[in-house]
Amino acid sequence: MMKIERKNRYDATSNKMVKKYTIKEIFRDNWDNFVYAMEKQGKTIRPTIMEEVAKIIGCQDPMNGFALYSCPDCHIQK
Protein backbone atom coordinates (compact mmCIF):
# COMPACT_ATOMS: atom_id res chain seq x y z
CA MET A 1 0.00 0.00 0.00
CA MET A 2 1.31 3.44 -0.93
CA LYS A 3 2.04 5.66 2.05
CA ILE A 4 0.45 9.09 1.86
CA GLU A 5 2.17 11.89 3.71
CA ARG A 6 -0.34 13.79 5.80
CA LYS A 7 -0.43 17.55 5.62
CA ASN A 8 0.04 19.52 8.80
CA ARG A 9 -1.88 22.63 9.67
CA TYR A 10 -1.58 25.24 12.38
CA ASP A 11 -4.28 25.22 15.05
CA ALA A 12 -4.50 28.68 16.60
CA THR A 13 -6.59 27.40 19.52
CA SER A 14 -3.89 25.02 20.79
CA ASN A 15 -1.04 27.09 19.31
CA LYS A 16 0.62 24.10 17.65
CA MET A 17 0.83 22.13 14.41
CA VAL A 18 -1.65 19.29 14.06
CA LYS A 19 -2.01 16.53 11.48
CA LYS A 20 -4.80 16.94 8.97
CA TYR A 21 -6.63 13.73 8.05
CA THR A 22 -8.89 13.39 5.03
CA ILE A 23 -12.01 11.24 4.79
CA LYS A 24 -10.11 9.13 2.26
CA GLU A 25 -7.27 8.47 4.73
CA ILE A 26 -9.68 7.56 7.51
CA PHE A 27 -11.48 5.05 5.27
CA ARG A 28 -8.23 3.72 3.79
CA ASP A 29 -6.71 3.15 7.22
CA ASN A 30 -9.77 1.61 8.89
CA TRP A 31 -12.18 0.15 6.32
CA ASP A 32 -10.75 -3.38 6.13
CA ASN A 33 -10.81 -3.75 9.92
CA PHE A 34 -14.37 -2.44 10.01
CA VAL A 35 -15.53 -4.92 7.34
CA TYR A 36 -13.77 -7.75 9.18
CA ALA A 37 -15.44 -6.79 12.48
CA MET A 38 -18.86 -6.63 10.82
CA GLU A 39 -18.40 -10.05 9.20
CA LYS A 40 -17.19 -11.51 12.49
CA GLN A 41 -20.46 -10.33 14.09
CA GLY A 42 -22.46 -11.93 11.28
CA LYS A 43 -23.52 -8.55 9.88
CA THR A 44 -23.40 -7.57 6.24
CA ILE A 45 -22.66 -4.29 4.55
CA ARG A 46 -24.91 -3.30 1.66
CA PRO A 47 -23.23 -3.55 -1.75
CA THR A 48 -23.86 0.13 -2.46
CA ILE A 49 -21.92 1.07 0.68
CA MET A 50 -19.02 -1.15 -0.40
CA GLU A 51 -19.03 0.49 -3.85
CA GLU A 52 -19.15 4.05 -2.50
CA VAL A 53 -16.31 3.43 -0.04
CA ALA A 54 -14.24 1.93 -2.86
CA LYS A 55 -14.82 5.16 -4.80
CA ILE A 56 -13.68 7.25 -1.84
CA ILE A 57 -10.53 5.17 -1.36
CA GLY A 58 -9.76 5.17 -5.10
CA CYS A 59 -10.33 8.90 -5.52
CA GLN A 60 -7.45 10.88 -7.09
CA ASP A 61 -5.84 7.74 -8.46
CA PRO A 62 -5.06 8.38 -12.15
CA MET A 63 -5.74 4.70 -12.89
CA ASN A 64 -9.42 5.39 -12.12
CA GLY A 65 -9.61 8.08 -14.79
CA PHE A 66 -9.24 11.82 -14.66
CA ALA A 67 -10.43 15.04 -16.25
CA LEU A 68 -8.15 17.16 -18.39
CA TYR A 69 -9.08 20.79 -18.92
CA SER A 70 -7.67 22.90 -21.73
CA CYS A 71 -7.98 26.66 -22.14
CA PRO A 72 -9.41 27.41 -25.60
CA ASP A 73 -7.33 30.61 -25.81
CA CYS A 74 -3.85 29.70 -24.56
CA HIS A 75 -4.22 25.88 -24.71
CA ILE A 76 -2.73 25.41 -21.23
CA GLN A 77 -3.86 22.08 -19.85
CA LYS A 78 -4.63 21.30 -16.24
Name the average pLDDT.
85
Backbone shape: flat
Largest sheet: 2 strands, antiparallel
Strand content: 5-15%
The tally of helices reads 2
Tell me roughly what share of residues is in helical segments.
Answer: 25-40%
For the termini, the CA-CA separation is: 27 Å
**Class derived from helix and strand content:** alpha+beta
Rg over CA atoms: 18 Å
Number of strands: 2
Order of strands, main sheet, comes to: 1-2
Poorly predicted regions are none
Order of helices and strands: EEHH
Strand and helix layout:
Layout: E1 7-11, E2 16-20, H1 23-40, H2 47-58
Antiparallel strand pairs: 1-2
Helix pairs in contact: 1-2
What does this structure look like?
- This protein has 78 residues and is α+β, with helices and mostly antiparallel strands.
- It has two helices and two strands.
- The chain has a two-stranded antiparallel ribbon.
- A hairpin with a 4-residue loop joins strand 1 and strand 2.
- The longest helix is centred in the middle third of the chain and has 18 residues.
- The radius of gyration is 18 Å and the shape is flat.
- The mean pLDDT is 85.
Keywords:
single chain, 78 residues, alpha+beta, two-stranded antiparallel sheet, 2 strands, flat
